[in-house]
C-alpha cells in the first residue's frame, strides 16, 4: 500500500526540488534577528546518536533531520527527508522515497547511502547509543547490536533516492522511531573527519548549523540558508549561553537581556513570578508526558534484593516532594504518566509506609540499614529534592550520601552503572512520542541496560522484555489489546521495583516580551524544551 506524505503521484517519477513548501508557516513571523537562551551546564554532545537529555534534544533536532518529522508544537507525524513511503501488505517492509536535492551543512547532497550508514551507525555497539534499542524491530538488529554482523540486514539501498527497511515483526511505533533524533541522517565523511568528536563538530541537514562552540561559555547556531523547508528558520542565530545560574538568568530575562531561561523558572522564584501579572503573562504552561523517578541499581548490593527496593519505594513521602516544587506535579505510582495510553488507573503502587518499609529491610537481613549514594543533578530544586529523599531514607535506617553533580556527570555515572541510586530530576523521562512503549525500551528494557544506556537501574527482566515485544507487535498502535499488554508490562516492572516513581510534572517556561510564535512551540512535546526552527522575534 502506498502512503503519500507530500505531493502527488508524479512526485515519485520526477526530480524533486530540495526546497519544500511548509504549510505550518506563521504569516505574522518576522524573519531575522537572534535570541539568547541560558543554561547552567554546558552541553555534553550534539551527536544525534548519543545525545539524549532535555537540554540538547531540541538543539540536535534543529541541526539534523530524519526520514520522518512532527508538525511544530505537536506529536503529529509529517514528512521529513522522506517525501513518501510504500508499505508492504504484511506490514513489514517500508520503502522510503527520499527528497532529492537536500544538502548537508558541508554542501554535499544527501543520498540513500547516508540513511543506511546512519542507521547502521546508531545500532553499532561501538557507538554506544542510548537509543539503539528503538531500532530493535529492524531485521538483523540483534546481530548488529551484538557485533556479529556489520550493519543492519533489513536496511537496503535501492538507488540514491530510495531506501528500503524491512522489519522482523510488525512495529506499531516504527514511523515514530524514524522521527527520533537517533534516526537523524549524518554524513560518514564528517563523522570520520571528527575522529570520535562528532558531538562537538556536528554536520547535518537541519534548519541551523553550528557556527561556534566556546566550551563553558556559549554555543552559536546560525541559519542554514540552504535548508530544504522553505521559509524557516525565521531566526538568523540562536545563542546558548552556558554557566548561567537560573536565578541570574531570570534577572537577565527581566532586564531584557535573555529571551528564554533554559533551566526554567527557579522554584524559589515561582510564587513571586506567578504573583506578578506582567511576569505571569510571559509564562507558558503545558502538559507533558513526564515521570520523575529514583533509579535503584539492581546490580549493586544490597539494591539487588527485591525487599530492599520495595522498602525504598514505601519510604518516600511523595506528597512532601511535590510541595518542594510548588505543587507543580502529582504523585506518581507507576512509570507511565496518567495521560499516556496504557496507564493503569486501578493500580495503586507502593503506599507510603515507614513501618512496613522497616519490616521489609529486616526481612532482607538489614534491620540496621546500610549506606549508599544518591546521585543528583546540581540545578535547583533537585539537590533539595535529594535532601528530602535522603531524610526519608534515614527514617528506615538507610544512610544515603548525596553526590550533586553537573547533568553530564550524572548521566555518565548512570550509563556506566556506577551510581547506586539516581534522582532523575532535570533529566527525568519526557516521552519522545505519545506511546507507552517509549517509557520502556530505553529506560527499563534490557537494550537500555548497557554501557552508556539510559536504563540506569540496569534492570533486565527477559520475560518482561518478551511481553514488551509482544505488546509492540501490532499494526494498530491504539489496539485495546495492545494497550492492555503494556499496562501489564508496567505492573510487572513495579513488582520488581527497579524504580521509585515520584511525580508527574507539568512544564512551565518563560519568554521575553519580544518573542513570537505559538505557545506550544515553547513547550513543544518533541522539540523539548523549545522548537527553535519556528520561533521568532517581533522587533
UniProtKB/TrEMBL annotation:
Record has Transport as a keyword: yes
CDD domains: PBP2_NikA_DppA_OppA_like (cd00995)
Secretion signal span: 1-20
Subcellular location: Periplasm
PANTHER family (alphabetical): OLIGOPEPTIDE-BINDING PROTEIN APPA, PERIPLASMIC BINDING COMPONENT OF ABC TRANSPORTER
Family: Belongs to the bacterial solute-binding protein 5 family.
Protein name per Swiss-Prot or TrEMBL: Peptide/nickel transport system substrate-binding protein
Organism of provenance: Albidovulum denitrificans
Species classification: Bacteria, Pseudomonadati, Pseudomonadota, Alphaproteobacteria, Rhodobacterales
Amino acid at each position: 500500500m502506498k502512503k503519500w506524505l507530500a505531493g502527488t503521484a508524479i512526485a515519485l517519477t520526477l526530480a524533486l526540488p530540495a526546497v519544500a513548501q511548509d504549510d505550518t508557516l506563521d504569516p505574522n513571523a518576522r524573519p531575522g534577528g537572534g535570541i539568547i537562551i541560558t543554561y547552567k551546564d554546558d552541553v555534553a554532545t550534539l551527536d544525534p546518536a548519543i545525545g539524549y537529555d532535555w537540554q540538547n534534544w531540541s538543539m540536535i533536532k534543529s541541526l539534523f533531520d530524519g526520514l520522518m518529522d512532527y508538525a511544530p508544537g505537536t506529536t503529529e507525524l509529517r514528512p521529513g527527508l522522506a517525501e513518501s513511503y510504500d508499505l508492504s501488505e504484511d506490514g513489514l517492509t517500508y520503502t522510503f522515497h527520499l527528497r532529492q536535492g537536500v544538502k548537508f551543512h558541508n554542501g554535499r547532497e544527501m543520498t540513500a547511502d547516508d540513511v543506511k550508514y546512519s542507521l547502521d551507525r546508531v545500532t553499532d555497539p561501538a557507538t554506544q547509543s542510548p537509543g539503539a534499542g528503538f531500532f530493535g524491530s529492524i531485521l538483523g538488529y540483534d546481530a548488529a547490536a551484538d557485533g556479529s554482523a556489520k550493519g543492519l540486514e533489513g536496511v537496503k539501498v535501492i538507488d540514491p533516492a530510495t531506501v528500503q527497511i524491512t522489519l522482523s515483526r510488525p512495529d506499531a511505533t516504527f514511523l515514530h522511531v524514524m522521527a527520533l533524533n537517533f534516526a537523524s541522517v549524518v554524513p560518514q565523511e564528517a563523522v570520520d573527519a571528527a575522529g570520535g568528536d562528532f558531538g562537538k563538530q556536528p554536520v547535518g541537514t537541519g534548519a541551523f548549523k553550528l557556527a561556534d562552540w566556546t566550551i563553558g561559555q556559549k554555543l552559536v547556531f546560525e541559519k542554514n540558508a540552504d535548508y530544504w523547508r522553505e521559509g524557516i528558520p525565521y531566526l538568523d542565530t540562536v545563542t546558548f549561553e552556558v554557566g548561567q545560574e537560573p536565578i541570574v538568568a531570570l534577572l537577565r530575562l527581566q532586564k531584557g537581556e535573555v529571551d528564554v531561561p533554559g533551566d526554567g523558572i527557579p522554584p524559589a522564584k515561582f510564587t513571586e513570578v506567578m504573583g506578578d501579572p506582567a511576569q505571569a503573562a510571559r509564562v507558558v504552561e503545558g502538559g507533558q508526558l513526564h515521570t520523575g523517578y529514583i533509579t535503584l541499581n539492581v546490580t549493586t548490593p544490597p539494591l539487588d534484593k527485591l525487599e530492599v527496593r520495595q522498602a525504598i519505594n514505601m519510604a518516600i513521602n511523595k506528597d512532601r516532594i511535590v510541595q518542594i516544587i510548588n505543587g507543580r506535579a502529582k504523585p506518581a505510582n507507576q512509570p507511565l504518566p496518567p495521560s499516556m495510553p496504557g496507564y493503569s488507573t486501578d493500580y495503586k503502587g507502593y503506599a507510603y509506609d515507614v513501618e512496613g518499609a522497616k519490616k521489609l529491610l529486616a526481612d532482607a537481613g538489614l534491620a540496621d540499614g546500610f549506606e549508599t549514594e544518591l546521585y543528583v543533578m546540581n540545578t535547583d530544586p533537585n539537590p533539595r529534592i535529594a535532601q528530602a529523599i535522603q531524610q526519608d531514607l534515614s527514617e528506615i535506617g538507610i544512610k544515603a550520601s548525596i553526590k550533586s553533580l553537573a547533568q553530564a556527570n550524572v548521566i555518565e555515572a548512570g550509563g556506566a552503572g556506577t551510581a547506586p541510586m539516581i534522582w532523575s530530576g532535570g533529566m527525568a523521562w519526557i516521552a519522545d512520542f505519545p506511546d507507552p512503549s517509549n517509557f520502556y525500551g530505553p529506560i527499563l528494557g534490557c537494550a537500555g541496560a548497557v554501557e552508556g544506556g539510559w536504563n540506569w537501574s540496569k534492570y533486565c527482566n527477559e520475560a518482561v522484555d518478551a511481553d514488551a515485544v509482544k505488546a509492540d507487535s501490532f499494526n494498530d498502535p491504539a489496539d485495546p489489546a495492545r494497550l492492555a499488554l503494556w499496562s501489564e508490562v508496567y505492573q510487572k516492572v513495579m513488582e520488581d521495583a527497579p524504580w521509585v516513581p515520584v511525580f508527574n510534572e507539568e512544564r512551565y517556561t518563560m519568554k521575553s516580551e519580544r518573542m513570537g510564535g505559538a505557545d506550544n512551540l515553547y513547550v513543544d512535546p518533541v522539540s523539548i524544551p523549545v522548537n527553535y526552527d519556528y520561533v521568532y522575534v517581533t522587533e
